[in-house]
Amino acid sequence: MFSMFGSSRTGLRRKRIGSGLASCHADSVVTIRTRKVMTNRLLARKQMVVDILHPNRASVPKTEVREKLAQLYKTTPDLVFAYGFRCQFGGGKSSGFALIYDTLDFAKKFEPKYRLLRLDCNATFWNCGIAVNATIIL
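The line above is the sequence of 40S ribosomal protein S24; the predicted structure tokens follow.
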């Protein structure tokens, strides 16, 4: 018996595997490892490369990464800045970079403004746009 979609036996196997994966998505474990950790006293921070293992999951939100790194290094999540994550081909692993500042004042002083605005650190900055310059000239 020839079937266009393969034998019924392989079809049953696909269904069984598919249903097993669907149940694993909610309970997947995320492992965060840091390497190349160095303390930068001039900029008052720790900087490191972060490797994330996330099998059966597309990616991990940066908020979750920040919370876990803050818990790991005994600090608050608002002092942790994670960025530059790339997923490995085939999935299951991502790597990026993280900075952990000593205080929020040092973070506001040394961190780029766009990253502060992404995390909403209650930072207000001087806007030097064209509209502002036009109102100053007039």
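Note on the example: The first strand starts at residue 31 and ends at 40. Residues 27-121 form a domain with the Alpha-Beta Plaits fold (CATH 3.30.70.3370).
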